[in-house]
Amino acid sequence: MGTVYITQEDAFIGKTDERLTVKADKKQILDIPLMKIEGIVALGRATVSPAVVTELLERKIPLSFLKVTGKYLGRLEPEMTKNIFVRKAQWEAIGTDKAIQVVRGFIRGKLKNYKNALLRRDRQNADLDLKPTIQKLEQALNPLSKNDQIDSLRGLEGAGSAAYFNCFNQLIQNPQFSFKTRNRRPPTDPVNSLLSLGYSLLRHDIQSAVNIVGFDPYLGYLHVPHYGRPALALDLMEEFRPLVVDAVVLASLNQQKLKPDYFTTEPLSEAVSLTLEGLKIFLRLYEEKKQSKFKHPVLGRQCTYQESFEIQGRLLAKYLMAETEQYPPLVLK
């Protein structure tokens, strides 16, 4: 089944025998075998029984808490894996050429996937003016291999991302929605609301994969370490942002699966979030995307995006442990 999303406000998460149960308003709304669950995301307020906490930790099932706006609140995390050798290699790479190579890989994957997405849209619709942005992405990609300063590499990533979002509105083929600029904490328009929510869901999935492989999720290379920030999970997220979240956001709008009345605005903060009905639609689309298959360019076989999160984590571990010559980011045409 993959990830279970709990959207009902003030839900109670309990268990009966080997099944997870969720109740709200004195009614049972979910009843799922625990063996089918890979992760749980609770959006809004939820109460978790002590029996469920114990069961999730024993089964190594992560539970993340998000606001309905997509803001990440916290996470119940199983014990770190016993593979100390992966974490040792992760720490030893700090300040070395390996860290620089990894940062290049994360940025190259993200910007190439941005570029490929725009090239596809440019071929599909000649009326769009995407070539200037594609050129700017190429200008950010070209110096990557010659640059050995992580701060400079971060600057290239920032320039490429800014160029991409400057043309993001052209990718929205639904006159009921528009995008001006990326904003968050909180998002103040429907498109940013979807992006923020999608990135929070992706963070849950990537952090789970990072933990399964055996990494310390808080020690990254591209993202500057801060207290409580899972920097490595955020690093590995980069190449997946356009492949998963941006693709789902654009599909939900362009295929008119989400309508303006599926969004609501909080009066004081002006934070925009999905209604319960809209949230269920978006979560279904996100889960469908994660379970969709593609041919992995390195492994040469079919896999789901859900599986590729862990695959990329294991490819990173192999590089840091000197079992391969480079980290290959996931780039899809």
Automatic annotation (TrEMBL):
Binding of Mn(2+), residues: E157, H223, E238
Cofactor: Mg(2+); Mn(2+)
Alphabetical UniProt keywords: Antiviral defense, DNA-binding, Endonuclease, Hydrolase, Magnesium, Manganese, Metal-binding, Nuclease
Annotated family: Belongs to the CRISPR-associated endonuclease Cas1 family.
Function, as annotated: CRISPR (clustered regularly interspaced short palindromic repeat), is an adaptive immune system that provides protection against mobile genetic elements (viruses, transposable elements and conjugative plasmids). CRISPR clusters contain spacers, sequences complementary to antecedent mobile elements, and target invading nucleic acids. CRISPR clusters are transcribed and processed into CRISPR RNA (crRNA). Acts as a dsDNA endonuclease. Involved in the integration of spacer DNA into the CRISPR cassette.
Subunit (UniProt): Homodimer, forms a heterotetramer with a Cas2 homodimer.
Name of protein: CRISPR-associated endonuclease Cas1
Upper lineage: Bacteria, Bacillati, Cyanobacteriota, Cyanophyceae, Spirulinales
Gene that specifies this protein: cas1d
